[in-house]
Amino acid sequence: MRVWAVVLAVVLVGVPAPARAGFTGAGFVATALDSAAVKARDHHCSSSDVIGAGAAITGGGDDVFLTAVGPKADLSGVDTAAVEDQDGFAGQWRLYASVICGVAPVDRKVVTGQSALSSSSTQAATATCPGSSRVMSGGAVIVGGKAQVGLDDLRITADLKAVSVTAVEDEDGFGGGWRVVARAVCTATLSGLELVTATVPASSSMMKALGVRCPEGKHLQGMGAAITGGGGQARLTTIMAATDQGPAMLVTATEDGNGYGGSWTLAGQAVCAK
Q1: Which CATH number is 193's domain given?
Q2: Which tens digits make up the pLDDT trace of 190-227?
Q3: What domain count does the chain have?
Q4: Contact between residue 223 and residue 139 where contact means Cβ atoms under 8 Å apart
């Protein structure tokens, strides 16, 4: 994770690209670098609207994972949270929050879906945009789980109609109740919406990372990520815009401390628009 922390720091301060109409940029803030077991960070747009949001963990090795990422339900800021696993982490780590800002479509609205509160080892929730509207960004929140439940998917469907979120208990399970919440930020009026997806080939690598870039002339609106395989032992650790003005995003995922013997894949998704 030390190498990835350096890469992330370099990307975040990369040379900005020119801003595009309706897009005012992305902002980044971070928690303190310390050994607190649970961290959360809010961020907001100072003079424009919240379009999308992301989060990233630096440090933490294979012992820290995301439990919330995406815009708040009222679009006033971002929901980002991360937690050390049940074994804890003795070192220092930091949680970044990113917010994508711009002039929002007038019909922008948030749709929420959630799973039932239960002790099921895997839970999923879907938020579907109504009528002709489509997803411009999305988010996920785990409620409960006490450091034993991690995000597996924040997946935007290929037709941009829904956000599907999956979370999985760790290998020794969690006896209490928990739920997962999916959020979709929807619009029917944003020009040129499209979903760009990239995937890391299947392997048993301990950590996986990739970037996804919007086509020329389009800018980033929202982000998604999905782990396939992993058996509940691979968790999302980054879903975030790559620079303050650029059209790209980053995704990382890491196996837990015990590792995973099989192969798994990681996909990143960028929602792009003119």
Answers
A1: 2.60.120.690
A2: 989 999 999 999 999 999 999 999 999 899 999 999 99
A3: 1
A4: no
